[in-house]
Amino acid sequence: MSDRDDGLKSADAIRARIDTRTPHSARFWNYFVGGKDNYEVDREVGDQIKEIFPGLVDVALTSRHFLGRAVRELAVERGIRQFLDIGTGLPTADNTHEVAQRVAPDARIVYVDNDPLVLAHARALLTSTPEGRTDYLDADLFDPEWILKAAAGTLDLSRPVALMILNTLGHVADYDLARSLVSRLMAGLPSGSYLVISDSTATSEGMIAASDAYNASGAVPYYVRPVEEIARFFEGLELVEPGIAQVTRWRPEPDGANGTEPAVDAYGGVGRKP
Fold first, then answer.
1. Nearest residue to 141 (alpha-carbon basis) of 111, 100, 98
2. Which residue, 44, 212, 215, 244, could crosslink 221 as a Cys pair with Cβ 3.0–4.6 Å?
């Protein structure tokens, strides 16, 4: 692992970086999906927002299901064996490596996040099948060139990679900058690579109110965007059917819970680099 990952070796250094007085999106989202890795401040904000817009819980849960369907599609149907997951958040059930290696044991996954609590749980993310490999980078979305350079220690960037950025780009306030970050990351990946994005969207008054309440909490702001702005992240790529869709409508499973999930204020898509 790189020098920037030395924090894995020092529990004290990690704990010193954790701010339990301010809500954090990874912990907030973890609370919504039923996880245990959150603090009172995250639960308080979560409960306040659930009163404003209960549908945000559905967004959290169904976005996780979208991740699973997208990873299975790429691994099973399109032969992808490498995944770069940026803004991975706290480990819960069916993380990217678990879904990918369940169907492709030789898959390699690199997780990227800069939250110290995620770093503290990195060893849980680093589990892998004997045939595959997982790694974790303590890094920032705003440094795409460093991410690509460090990821090359685990991934073969001459072969196709699935770049996954789920529920993360909303933290980039400037839309043009967000598009630039995505473009710079994709520029470092070869033809045949894929981009997977999902984000909460400004498609209801309730979601907009929930975003405003979250941003007023003191946490790092998260900005919901129109669907057409989510779509423009994929310019120049070949969209996988059904294109940009509500996460519950992107290749829903005909049997089981995913077939009856509600409409939500979150859209996503998968695109292939020509």
1. 111
2. 215
Pure H helices in 18-104: 25-32, 40-52, 55-72, 96-103
3-state SS class at 250: coil
- CA of residue 201 relative to chain centroid, distance: 15
How far apart CA 85 and CA 240 sit, in angstroms, is 19
- Angle of helix 205-215 relative to helix 55-72, nearest 10 degrees? 100
Instruction: Provide the 8-state DSSP code for 199.
Output: E
State the angle between helix axes of 55-72 and 25-32 in degrees (0 to 180), rounded to the nearest 10.
90
For 192-249, what is each residue's pLDDT tens digit? 999 999 999 999 999 999 999 889 888 889 999 999 999 999 999 999 999 999 999 9
Contact 199, 266 (CB under 8 A): yes
Among 273, 190, 265, which Cα is nearest to 239's? 273
Phi, psi of 15, rounded to the nearest 5 degrees: -60, -35
Q: Do residues 57 and 74 lie in contact, with contact meaning Cβ atoms separated by under 8 Å?
A: no
Phi/psi of residue 140, nearest 5 degrees: -120, 135
Tally of CA atoms within 13 A in the half-sphere of 182 that contains its CB: 30
